[in-house]
Task: structure prediction
Amino acid sequence: MKKYIFILVAVLFACTKENLPNKGKLNPNAMISLRPALTKSVMNVADIVKYTTDISFYNTGISPNSVSRMFSVAQRDIANTRLLMWGTDIITQQGKYCTDFIEGRDIVFRVLTSPTWPAIWDTVAYIPNSIIASARTKIIKEFADSNYTAVYRVFDSAFVFTPITGAQWKALKLAGQN
Result:
């Protein structure tokens, strides 16, 4: 009988919550890294990180017009050559999936070239739609499984931008290549 009690205790101990696979915890302070692609470019990616004013994109689920988000000083990681967005742009502080950014398309980084009205913007980089779609698929899968560690790994590595000029961006869009 002692043998069966020992086995039962061992099984119960093995099934406690602390012994389940570690899927991480929800981190309301998580950041999303926007890193440059490893390509040769005439544009200096450090300057893109330093001078990008905002990120602009389309998400017809929230607006028929483009949506833009400014970058603060805290969102510029010049030492690691990346821009940062708040993790709450994808997972809210209440732990809900937020579609505003991740369901976006035609994501471009812009610099303000003339602050007088009307403002004049120039495109300096973009995130290909295929990269956003791939990241979205991974995030949705891991989020549904409550695997926040994997979600934050995607936050840190999946969002890669490519330097591009405004004229190149317009040509790319006209060719239907994004």
Observations:
- The first strand starts at residue 31 and ends at 36.
- Strands lie at 31-36, 54-58, 66-70, 76-77, 82-86, 105-114, 120-127, 160-163.
- Confidence is low (pLDDT under 50) at residues 1-21.
